[in-house]
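Summary for the steering committee. The consortium agreed at its last meeting that each partner would contribute one worked example illustrating the joint modelling workflow. Our contribution is presented below. We chose a case with several input lines so that the handling of multiple components could be demonstrated. No manual editing was applied between input and output; the record is shown as generated.
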Amino acid sequence: MIARLNDAEITAALPDVPGWTRNGDGIERQYRFADFVTAFAFMSRVALLAEKADHHPEWSNVYNKVDVRLTTHDAGGLSARDFALAKAIDG
Amino acid sequence: MIARLNDAEITAALPDVPGWTRNGDGIERQYRFADFVTAFAFMSRVALLAEKADHHPEWSNVYNKVDVRLTTHDAGGLSARDFALAKAIDG
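What follows is the complete predicted structure of the assembly.
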């Protein structure tokens, strides 16, 4: 079982992932790129990071835009895994 | 300007893309795979097909599921491009 972060822990963790905002049980960020090729290159990089972390995003893509949502179903909310993956994505 | 298909043309074209259903101005299909790696491998193949066709899907992924929607914004609805890409994806 992965520990679910409480509100105070989430509030404390958010400044470490600038650009991400909390939305209910998840954190979300939208990325915009020059075109589809650049957007999908980003997605390929994130896919490798996600598989390595064994933690996968809920995400969508329309041409040059990628919307990423991170949440931890096994924790029933946000966990440290979400913030770690968000940092890795932006790292 | 890309020609928008009318309802009769869409109805005639749908049997050529089994598994796809019309939803308003688009056609949609959900794919399920064994895991994330297989799902993203599929997405990578679709990304190449889309870029080659210069026609890009609206799509989302959650772990082993990929939802694909095809529509032609420049036509204000469905065009032959959507059915051609659907066939390429399933080919």
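The interface with chain B takes residues 36-37, 40, 43-44, 47, 50-51, 56-63 of chain A (CB under 8 Å). The two ends of chain A are 27 Å apart (CA to CA).
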